[in-house]
Amino acid sequence: MTDLQETTLPLLLASARDLARGGIIDTSPLREGALLFDLSRHDRVLISGRDRIRFLHAMLSNDVKGLQAGAGRWATFNTVQGRTVSDVRLFDLDDDRKTGSILALLEPGARGGFVDGLDKYVISEKVFFEDDEGGALLLVAGAGAEAALPAVPELLYGHLEAEIGGAAVRILRLDRSSPEGQDFGLWLRETDRAAVVAALGLPMGAPELLEAARIEAGQVRFGIDLTTTNIPLEAGLKERAISFTKGCYIGQEVICRIDSLGTPGRKLVRLRVAGDSPEPGTDLFREGKAVGFVTSALRTAEGALAFGYVKKRSNALGTVLRVGQAEGPEATVGAEL
Length: 337
Fold this sequence. Notes:
By secondary structure, this protein is α+β, with helices and mostly antiparallel strands. The chain has helices at residues 10-21, 28-32, 52-59, 111-119, 193-200, 207-217, 238-241, 252-260, and strands at 34-38, 43-48, 72-78, 84-94, 101-106, 128-131, 135-142, 159-164, 167-174, 183-189, 266-273, 283-286, 289-300, 303-311, 320-323, 330-336. It folds into 2 domains: 1-28 and 265-337, Beta Barrel (Elongation Factor Tu (Ef-tu), domain 3); 33-217, Probable tRNA modification gtpase trme, domain 1 (Gyrase A, domain 2), CATH 3.30.1360.120. Helix content is 20%, strand content 33%. The longest helix has 12 residues, at 10-21.
């Protein structure tokens, strides 16, 4: 079994293992109505200072200079070797050069790598990082999520201010449960949580339900599907979190060179597994040789669904692999993520 302990975020790895070992999770409640989830464990950092735009644009994989207040981006922060230190959703709260700020939304436990890594590159630039102390983050997801809110941003990673239950809330359009961006984050003060929850009147959803939904929908998650051993191209982020026209950023040379070759040496793909859902890190075999490993997995009534990294010569659609050992259960390669 591949050891993911050193390359994944501990909280997400534990959650992914529990999900793989658990029973069948019915995701139909999300198709029947809107549910409320608590995402307050996600790290949140406010980035301010007059040089914040220029600095982030030079550090991250996506275009930050093009951001305007009310808009956002998905980006990655990489090493010079092109490997992913963290991914981040950026939300431009106020584009005033001197007084404005950007909200950085990160996976639980990713704050250290992101902030500490960026801070090493700050020399004379006016860039400041401040944790969102006293804040909370909720998520409205499922059928009718938009109707449950007073207003919603139109574009993915768009955001706007609103009032719910007499409390000020910033509503963020997110892609937590699927790539389509049909979820809405509610960023608010912790002291307003009770009032907002009461005003919405939505049932609370379990974390494993949200996690199961994103695996079914094919949404990649940093800290388990994309780690510090991967370049973002391997996880299918080329069209979603990388700009090839913005100019230089850390890791750009490696990422662009690999892209120019056509495809990385391995890619993250969907897998349909015959039998029990494999744990993260379980090896995948073809013709007796290890050709990849599992990242996320979910047990369903029709069998198991999984994501896994598979080498180029073995990741074509319909290829049959073996799970755990050379003669283990079959896993059929589906579409790339």
